[in-house]
Design brief:
- The protein has 363 residues and is of the alpha/beta class.
- The chain has two domains: 7-65, DNA polymerase, domain 1 (Orthogonal Bundle); 70-358, Aldolase class I (TIM Barrel).
- The protein contains 13 helices and 14 strands.
- A ten-stranded mixed sheet has the order 3-4-5-6-9-10-11-12-13-14. Strands 1-2 form a two-stranded parallel sheet. A two-stranded antiparallel ribbon has the order 7-8.
- Residues 356-363 have low confidence and may be disordered.
- The protein binds iron/sulfur cluster.
- Iron/sulfur cluster binds at residues 120, 122-124, 127, 129-130, 171-173, 206, 227, 345.
Length: 363
């Protein structure tokens, strides 16, 4: 008899689980119980599921896999930021970052930055992930698994721990894995699961114009951030190569459509480095965003080994901010997180790979 490949039960909406259960002779309520155990209680093994009898659990075990991502390494910063390096079933590695804001000003916000691809095909010049190239898209279960497994890990320290916000800003371009990302958002939003509100989710894109327009249609509650990094095509072509395919005029038009349809402002990320922190770029940014529902986040870049890109001085960053304020553009400098660990996207994975290379070098 031909053996069927098992399904990853962390990658299914509740309705879909119910359909699979019914097709396999199980009652629909078993799907609701299973969904709850996986997505609300972060169960990682079949024997944790107490209210489903052994016979039905065995049936579920024949259909589905239930397996956590393997934690290979955790780095913890003095400021509460924690970076997880997970290994996937095929041996690939991804990073997930928990930014703990709890102690800063009692906002009680636990934001997790998740990855959506192994590597990234966009190849931004300041990014360790982009430098390492693209391997594959993550599955839905690998995306939801990052939230579930971080939650489970942190609940060992604090049983009340809960992720409140998600940013799709880790490794990979989320809009190049659009369907999986949208489904993961739906699963994590479910009442019977983590109940993470749509308005507490932000997708960050390097500028995939057709998908910005699709997001505005499909899920207007989800926030949009754009990794802008430059206000002129000349500079942006160099920093974010996807700009050659979707140049600034097209990108800004799509952002305007998103804002009009959703009535939400777009966050524009500017990773400031020595090449884009000039007065001219700041003035070009003021003209580009004039009249838009926008907020600019200035992020002094974390130096990435091998990129040659350097962090600008504090004075340059402050001058840049002042120019935007003078042009009536809402702006903030992003709190610097995890500077004492490999916090920039792809850095921990890059470090691990270089350690592996070192360890296999002939002496
Ligand atoms: S910054 Fe984002 S889009 Fe650009 S290469 Fe890195 S992961 Fe990809």
């Amino acid at each position: 008899m031909q053996s069927m490949e098992k399904l990853d039960c962390r990658g299914y909406l509740e309705d879909e689980l119910a359909e699979v259960c019914l097709q396999n002779g199980l009652k629909k309520y078993r799907a609701n119980q299973l969904f709850n155990w996986i997505n609300q209680k972060s169960a990682q093994h079949w024997d944790e599921i107490k209210n489903i009898g052994k016979a039905d659990r065995d049936t579920l075990n024949r259909i589905f896999t239930l397996k956590p991502l393997e934690i290979m390494r955790i780095q913890q910063s003095k400021d509460g930021t924690r970076k997880f390096l997970f290994q996937l079933a095929d041996g690939e590695t991804i990073e997930t970052v928990l930014m703990d804001y709890t102690n800063l000003d009692s906002r009680d916000r636990q934001t997790v930055c998740v990855s959506t691809q192994v590597g990234c095909p966009v190849g931004c010049s300041f990014c360790a992930t982009g430098m390492a190239g693209f391997r594959r898209n993550l599955t839905v279960g690998e995306i939801t698994g990052q939230i579930l497994d971080v939650t489970r890990y942190l609940q060992q320290e604090d049983p009340e721990f809960k992720v409140t916000n998600i940013v799709y800003m880790g490794m990979g371009e989320p809009f190049l894995n659009y369907e999986a990302v949208m489904k993961a958002i739906g699963i994590l939003n479910s009442e019977n699961g983590q109940k993470i509100g749509m308005r507490r989710v932000t997708i960050s894109t390097s500028g995939i114009v057709p998908k910005i327009l699709k997001l505005a249609e499909d899920n207007p509650q989800v926030g949009l951030a754009v990794s802008l990094h430059a206000a002129s095509n000349k500079v942006r072509d160099r920093l974010v190569p996807i700009n050659k395919r979707y140049p600034l005029a097209q990108l800004m038009e799509a952002c305007r459509v998103y804002s009009t349809q959703t009535n939400r402002r777009v966050t524009f990320e500017m990773a400031l480095n020595e090449t884009n922190a000039s007065k001219e770029e700041a003035m070009a940014l003021v003209s580009l965003l004039h009249g838009m529902l926008a907020h600019v986040n200035l992020i002094p870049v974390n130096p990435v080994f091998g990129s040659g890109i350097q962090r600008p001085s504090k004075e340059k960053i402050t001058d840049f901010k002042r120019t935007l304020e003078a042009g009536n553009i809402p702006v903030s400098i992003r709190e610097e997180k995890g500077l004492d660990i490999d916090a920039a996207c792809g850095q921990l994975r890059q470090r691990l790979e270089s350690e592996i290379d070192e360890s296999v070098k002939p002496s």
